[in-house]
User: Fold this.
Amino acid sequence: MRSLLLRSFQHLLLAVCGFTTAFPFLWMISTSLKTSGEVGEFPPRLLPATPQWSNYPDAWQSAAFPRYFANSVVMATVVTLGVVITALLAGYAFGHMEFPGRKIVFMLYLATMMIPFEVVVIPNYLFITRLGWYNSLAALVAPWLSNVFSVFLVTQFFRGLPRDFYEAAQLDGCGHSRYLSRIAAPLARPALATAGLFAFLGSWNSLLWPLLVTNSDAMRPIEVGLQSFLVQEGPRPHLLMAASTMAMAPIIGLFFLAQKTFVEGVAAGVKG
Amino acid sequence: MSGGVKPGNSRWKRTLQDAATAYLMVLPSALIIGAFGLLPLIAALGLSFQEWRLKPGPWVGIANYRQALTAEPEFWSAVWVTVYYVVGTVPLTVILAYGCAELLHTRLRGMGFYRALFFIPYVASPVAASAVWKWILNPTSGIASAVTRRFGVEPRWLYEETGILSLLASTGRLPLPEWAGGPSLALVCIMAVAVWHGVGFAVVVLLAGLASIPTDVLEAARLDGARGWRLIRSVKLPLLSPTLFFLWIVFTIRAFQTFSQVYVMSIDNKGGPSGTTRNLTLYIFQSFYDSAARLGPGYGSAVAMLLFAVILVLTLIQFRILGRKVHYA
Assistant:
């Protein structure tokens, strides 16, 4: 009896916390379906009288959203591929191979994790413009093609991989490159998936860097596009909320598809 | 590879070959991290000693640093905003997350759903999330004002530059000197959103920590009569201390570096009202664009180096003081 009471109390508490967490998103969706008249009502009504689905195409057409989305997809995909490839190669070398200077280089890697992005953003900007990459895909992705976190994650994974696998493969005449492509890389898939997911998420949600290195709709990713839309469309909240919902949808979808990888990745990253 | 090669020699060759392969494999990643992480740090240090208004100018020694520390009141106001932000968000996020993790760390039906729910703010686009919060906190038509109006208060939320303590004091008719006013209500709103954003991540990390506490330890403690608060304080918290320490360090560093949230949520995207939400990162960003006026990239780099130094020193101090209390099983 007591445990039943406790259980319902826990459920109640969780539901309250969960609702509080989710409320902004629910409110966003509700607002995105209101008419411009309903949006202006005060006190606001909780739900629209009839959902205005047409707000979505309206918002979609009132800025270069198809372009922004395409840019974000390309940017985040290139970054994800880059991170996965560089992390696989470097992680294999750090975690599996023995070579002189390994420890020093690895320590140097970890040390760069301490450098805040704000410190390097100005020189990076100057560097990119000097290369003539301003307002290009190269500028958007180059600094993010590798990061210490993912190298670290994959290194930790390879450290935990039994060495007899490699020794057996070696006896069969398998060198490092073949062992990596045929055996090690497929085994490392969970670590690579985590690294890739976080790379995709970080790239999709990034604002400061794309804001600095782009100046036209042709190159702007969704976050920057949405931000300028917010500034222009201040008085039309229903369209704003529709645009925000659309900008958020792919990432939330990805999160629900890969929830386990996300959650376990966070946990693994901490323990490592 | 002739037959005359001694075995020792070929082993050497093998080691060398392996080393070359290893360096080749590290190279792509090292190039990126070196070019966009390590080198720019050195470059930023160089820039910070340079005058740079409309174009690169001469070396000026520590003039940029002196300007920030002695001649720019806006720098100090950005420092205060940053301090308020760190102190106001980090402890609260960690404590709230611990509470949620304790709640979630039981076998209940639908736990996966709740877990996902708490995590969503963390993955959601910061610009979109900030847009929603701005709409909720809209003083004329937002739902937050609709709620508070029932209690007879109509705060101006993100438009309010008066300190939160002054506001509270004035409802009790207590005059408060301006310096004691605390962070502006606008900044408090942004901090609340930051907590909302960060809790989910911390909950997931803490759940992993809680799951790694061996059940027999908890059982033994319970048999010894430890319950409720005693159990948490003497058993769980010490065992969780590495996780809590990690969260504390990561959140502190992130709080110092916040950009998107402050940029998007401040009503004019410039740290308004009256600069009361302009933190150091936003200040660096603005001084960079302000190249025509008296600031510019050289000055911005000096401020960035100061920020870096503070983060570094604070992290080291935290490692010294808190790190000693961390219990590694």
